[in-house]
Amino acid sequence: MNIHKRIQNAALQSKIMPAAQAASLIPLGANVGMSGFTGAGYPKAVPQALAARLSALHAAGQTHASINLWTGASTAPELDGVLAKAHGIQMRLPYQSDPTCRQLINAGQMLYTDMHLSHVAPMARAGFLGPLDVAVVEVIGILPDGRLIPSTSVGNNPTWLDQARRIILEVNLHQNPALEGMHDLPHNTLMPPHGQPIALTHPNDRVGTPYLHCDPSKVVAVVITDHPDRNSTFDAPDEVSAQIAAHLIDFLQHEVKAARLPAALLPLQSGVGNTANAVLAGLNQGPFDQLTAYTEVLQDGMLDMLHSGKLAFASSTALSLSPAALAEFNANIDFYRQRIVLRPEEISNHPELIRRLGVIAMNAMIEADIYGNVNSTHIMGSSIMNGIGGSGDFARNARLSIFMSPSVAKDGKISCIVPMVSHHDHTEHDVHIIVTEQGLADLRGLAPTQRARLVVERCAHPSFRPQLLDYMDRAQRSGAGLHTPHLLDEALSWHNRYLKCGQM
Ligand code: COA
Questions:
Q1: How far does residue 366's CA lie from ligand 1's centre (Å)?
Q2: Which end of the chain is more exposed for a tag (fewer CB within 10 A), N or C?
Q3: CA torsion angle for 404, 410, 413, 419 (degrees, to 10)?
Q4: For residues 275 and 303, what is the distance between their CA atoms, to the nearest angstrom?
């Protein structure tokens, strides 16, 4: 590979250096904005070199040597994992899914600011997060005039490049150069009071150019890498997720028949994880055609739907593909370039656009309560799982806000339908539909007591249903307020029981 074909700007060619040298340019305690979204397009070499440097400093007695790490969303072992293992992250934002980060956050050894993804770039530009000292961004190539070809995710990169005092670019030779042209980056994102409407009325509209811009004088290092993205595999859809998908498809067909949705539905958003991916597999076998997607992450399920023709077009901010799906993507990239656009996450997750397009938001959850409040982030009230990601951006603004989960977790010891959620991410006002393998509850237009009966009867596992009905009946007779009746000394007793006895 001729490196000068990928880096065509002479001034930036002169800044090529090894990762360790580039990592030494990151000050201790710095706020560092790195690229990366759901394991795609993150820097592969500089974070590892930085982790090695921080480990050496710790060994030499500088035990607090660390950075504050901002990204697009979750990354990979070569970024979050290695920096967390080196105890090199003081504060992390916004979304992560790394096991070591999770363990350190829950042990109180790493601060974590879990934010709606659409808020991150505007908050950084407004200065609420403090100054951005360094940006470390993976790109695919650099044009003669210094414009950058984005990688497999866009995330917050335009803002990191714009705001950072110093920029380190990683040019990843492993990424397919034919990705050029797949991105759409607006360059006039104005802040209030000068904000303008974002002129998108269909997922395949474009409002920008395919390139990232940066001031070449801020670039202090260019590092060459040649490594694949994380490319995690997904679990094969199981019986439970197939049942969830079947309930959802029945419901959508019913909505079409009732003329509440068009035949090609409305743009789909599909969340992270195995359940969300399995539902897409169900839709790929389902009755709908000419579908579109306006989403933040494009997983295998959506690629399969593009391949089969069920999905006509997808807008996202990241590709998050297994090795097999990536091979298919690369083999047919001209086909996919016509059908996929990658945008910054403040556009993929923009409330104005989600509301205007009428997105059908389908997100997985950890638990829901009988009144339809949803917990997406915390286990037993206090331990973070991953983070809210874009689920709140989509749920609050969607035409249809759907949350799904198996009805039980941990071999049936935990009910995912509980009297009161142990942490609130999405309030009853933002949750239209709850679906488990047991069935689907359409909560639109219902009062809390009506919602509760439907959630329990349709979604709870039979082994927990009688207890939930008993709770509801006793709450209604207890003299508590009858709008949203609760037994306050019992509402979280199910979680307490699990923590004490290992069974709800
Ligand atoms: N209590 C305790 N643990 C629970 C649980 C509950 N009510 N429900 C699920 N779990 C556990 C599972 O047992 C599993 O544990 P394991 O990793 O030890 O096997 C883990 O949580 C993940 O559950 P799984 O059923 O495999 O879910 P998933 O892969 O579909 O992910 C979320 C579900 C909620 C964790 C995931 O979707 C997420 O992080 N969502 C928040 C972000 C988001 O929605 N973004 C959307 C825009 S992309």
A1: 5
A2: N
A3: -30
A4: 16
Query: And the tokens for 374?
Result: 């949803």
Pocket of ligand 1 (CB under 6 A): 271-275, 296-297, 363-367, 376, 379, 385-386, 388-391, 406, 409-410, 414, 416
Which H or E run contains 461?
none
Give the H/E segment covering residue 117. helix 117-126
Asked, as a colleague might, if the bond just before 94 is cis with ω within 30 of 0, I would say yes
Tell me the pLDDT of the chain (504 aa) as tens digits: 679 899 999 999 999 999 999 999 999 999 999 999 999 999 999 999 999 999 999 999 999 999 999 999 999 999 999 999 999 999 999 999 999 999 999 999 999 999 999 999 999 999 999 999 999 999 999 999 999 999 999 999 999 999 999 999 999 999 999 999 999 999 877 789 999 999 999 999 999 999 999 999 999 999 999 999 998 888 888 899 999 999 999 999 999 999 999 999 999 999 877 788 888 988 999 999 999 999 999 999 999 999 999 999 999 999 999 999 999 999 999 999 999 999 999 999 999 999 999 999 999 999 999 999 999 999 999 999 999 999 999 999 999 999 999 999 999 999 999 999 999 999 999 999 999 999 999 999 999 999 999 999 999 999 999 999 999 999 999 988 999 999 999 999 999 999 999 999
Chain centroid to CA 167: how far? Answer: 25
Cα dihedral 142, 143, 148, 149, rounded to 10, equals: -90
Among this protein's residues, is 78 annotated catalytic? no
- Partnered with residue 209 across adjacent β-strands are 185
> How does DSSP classify residue 155?
B
pTM exceeding 0.90: yes
Q: CA-to-CA distance for 441 and 434, rounded, in angstroms?
A: 5
Amino acid at 162: D
Task: Specify the DSSP element, H or E, that contains 300.
Answer: helix 300-308
- For residue 193, is the peptide bond before it cis, meaning its omega torsion is within 30 degrees of 0? yes
Q: Which residue has the tokens 């690229």?
A: 35
Residue nearest atom 6 in ligand 1 by C-alpha distance: 366
| Angle formed by the axes of helices 448-459 and 465-477, nearest 10° | 160
Segment (H or E) for 324:
helix 323-331
- Which structure tokens are listed for 247? 């309930």
